[in-house]
Amino acid sequence: MPAFAKFFSTLKGSREIVRSRPNHDLTIQAYKFNEDDLNVLKVRFQLAAEDHVISNIPNEKIEEFPEKYFCPKVNRKMLIDEDFDIRKISNFSDSPIRTFFRKMQIVTRNPLGMPESRTDDLVADLLRVVKMNDDPLMIAQHLPRKLYILNEPYVSAEPEFVVTKGVISMVFVEDKTLENTNRLCAYGEMQIAAELLACENDNVREDSKITDQVLFGENDKKSGLDLAHPDGRRKVLTALAKIRQYLLK
């Protein structure tokens, strides 16, 4: 079962803590965040089971299910084969499907030293496959955000992908954009937390309300799913489709 990190932030409480500890030198860049910064902001990660995070919608009730993108014929071994020709797969009659798998083929064949833009292209396609860019949802890439403390913009963040619906934001992080992946920064969790905080803080300010916020992120290498494998592809697309349907309620 995939593990998800459940993220808690009480913004009002965080302000009170920062006010009471003016001498703490809070990091001003999300990618430099560390455990001390999160402790000051009263933030913690807590493991949660998949069914606590992904809406419990039966597969047969998912609207606009992206079935044609699963393609059980295609696996990692085929994608890394130099002789593999996507055009010869009968399932790929639509050009958008061929494009999606062509991008996956590029990422699968060149995992080391590959430009970040290549992976970004695949992630962007993945989000569009599950209609995360169809109104009222919208994808924003590298969206500048600020975490405000005592009404001052203090921490800067630029999440790679943010899906928005009004004041609701969902952050998608590709591991190549995590700059501090050492043990002291919990292998990137600190940066993810800062980006989530900054996105939600901007939304709270726009809504003119201070409320307790519950946010979710995923950062568990052992439970990762492989898009190049049919089963992993199905699970990822199914989870994203359920999240989309939940957001559209």
What does this structure look like?
This protein is α+β, with helices and mostly antiparallel strands and 249 residues long. The chain has eight helices and eight strands; from the N terminus they run βααβααααβββββαβα. It has one domain (3-247). It has helices at residues 11-20, 35-40, 50-53, 76-80, 95-109, 116-129, 189-207, 230-247, and strands spanning 3-10, 43-49, 138-141, 145-149, 152-157, 161-165, 168-172, 212-217. Strand 6 (161-165) and strand 7 form a beta hairpin. Helix 5 (95-109) runs antiparallel to helix 6 (116-129). It comes from Diversispora eburnea. This is 11289_t:CDS:1.
Task: Spell out the blueprint of helices and strands.
Layout: E1 3-10, H1 11-20, H2 35-40, E2 43-49, H3 50-53, H4 76-80, H5 95-109, H6 116-129, E3 138-141, E4 145-149, E5 152-157, E6 161-165, E7 168-172, H7 189-207, E8 212-217, H8 230-247
Antiparallel strand pairs: 1-2, 1-8, 3-6, 4-5, 6-7
Helix pairs in contact: 5-6
Protein name: 11289_t:CDS:1
